[in-house]
Design brief:
It is built from four helices and 15 strands. The chain has 268 residues and is α+β, with helices and mostly antiparallel strands. The chain is globular.
Length: 268
């Protein structure tokens, strides 16, 4: 009898120890799972929008870069132009470098307005952001769109595209000066949330074009868009390559980004 009592006590102690051990293991596993779930939480709308903007520039810092546009339309010979762009905060100054017939032209984004200067005319005319510059590339695509400032965003969820996990972001223009009424953007699900594809819509809901982010490069320690493919939504054979290069942080003066400066020697 004493032996049975002793064995029952020992057995109870073993059960308690095993239960305690399993509790610890279960708690540790739960804790680890919690750490995993908070180590890479779902990004906020602002995080995704800021990431989208940062792949095209440097936040709160003057910088410059170059764009080469090559447009293909049906059986026509491809057309191209070369541009150099300087950006200070929300202002952009574009210089036309090629072809020769366009060299010397300049375009300025001053607040919500975009101004175009054509040499020899001494006139500065206002142009629409959505107006096409070359092929599928518009004025807004060149001077740069600040999605964080010009749009309200909403994360529609995480989707699978060709087996890849992407965040789907929907942007709605918050002012009539925004170049597109609505934009849908697919971004990689892990930081730094590289953009994968964008769709641009009119105010009537018509799809204008689709952008495919094809290649990225590092400049000054930060990754930027290097090759962007724009495809016409209706005529798929019409497409434009935008090649971004030579990103560089520079000191710029506010005087360069005024309408009156377009006709002055600062553009020479």
């Amino acid at each position: 009898m004493m032996w049975n009592l002793y064995n029952r006590i020992q057995y109870s102690q073993i059960i308690l120890l095993v239960t305690f051990y399993l509790t610890l293991v279960g708690y540790s596993a739960y804790a680890d799972e919690g750490l995993k779930s908070t180590a890479n939480p779902n990004p906020t709308v602002n995080e995704l929008m800021q990431s989208l903007d940062e792949f095209r520039g440097y936040k709160d810092q003057g910088f410059q870069f170059k764009i080469r546009n090559i447009s293909y339309r049906g059986n026509r010979d491809p057309r191209e132009n070369s541009l150099s762009i300087q950006v200070l905060n929300e202002q952009s100054l574009v210089r036309f470098e090629a072809p020769v017939r366009e060299k010397g032209r300049a375009m300025l984004k001053e607040g919500d307005n975009i101004w175009l200067y054509i040499p020899g005319t001494r006139k500065v005319i206002r142009v629409a952001p959505s107006q096409r510059l070359l092929g599928e590339a518009s004025n807004a695509d060149v001077v740069g769109t600040n999605f964080t400032q010009d749009y309200n965003g909403k994360v529609l969820g995480e989707v699978k595209v060709d087996g890849q996990s992407l965040w789907l972001l929907e942007l709605s223009a918050n002012s009539i000066s925004a170049p597109y009424a609505r934009v849908k953007v697919w971004l990689e699900s892990a930081p730094p949330y590289k953009p994968n594809k964008s769709e641009f819509y009119t105010r009537s809901g018509k799809l204008l074009k689709t952008a495919f982010y094809k290649e990225f490069k590092h400049y000054d320690g930060q990754e930027k868009v290097h090759k962007l493919l724009l495809v016409d939504a209706v005529m798929k054979e019409n497409y434009t390559w935008m090649k971004f290069d030579d990103y560089e942080k520079v000191e710029l003066q506010p005087a360069q980004f005024q309408k009156s400066a377009l006709t002055q020697a600062v553009l020479k």
